[in-house]
Amino acid sequence: MESKATHEQAKLQLELYDIRREAKLREARDWFMKNYFVDSFEDAMKIGGPGTPTGTNAFMVMSYWDMVCSYLNHGLLHEDLFFESNGEFFMVWERAKGMAKGFREQFGAKHFLANMEAAAGRYETWMEKRSPGHIAKMREFMKQMRGQAAKVA
Q1: What span, in angstroms and rounded, lies between the C-alpha atoms of 110 and 95?
Q2: pTM for this model (two decimals)
Q3: Tens digit of pLDDT for each residue in 27-43?
Q4: Count of CB atoms situated within 10 Å of the CB of 37
Q5: Residue 87 and residue 137: Cα distance in Å, rounded?
Q6: H-state helical runs in 21-130
């Protein structure tokens, strides 16, 4: 992004950060990071189907980050500023992308997580230019997290 970040964009980003600190969302994020490892829509329904506490956690996290990414995609957040200080949305997308297509098909929701998907694609390109290899190392770390979670389960 060539323009400079505005105070209004920085303020919105801080407000969104503050929302992340809300107790229920923090609890959902904690659960998601420790437990949400799915490869398909079917896996997602087993671990966190609609109407279940785990489903509520999963969809709270995914919908929060998709909403934030919609602000980013519409220019309400400054992309460089956002990417410099946010990586969690990318990890959420990496965890959710395996189920997104099936969800879209099952529920006719063509735009389900589309904002996060678009932002994640740009983030990957942005990060590789600034820190080559970081995305690969992040994905490897997520595999390790998944392995650790499987040992505990």
Answers
A1: 19
A2: 0.93
A3: 999 999 999 999 999 99
A4: 18
A5: 13
A6: 23-35, 41-48, 53-73, 79-85, 88-107, 114-130
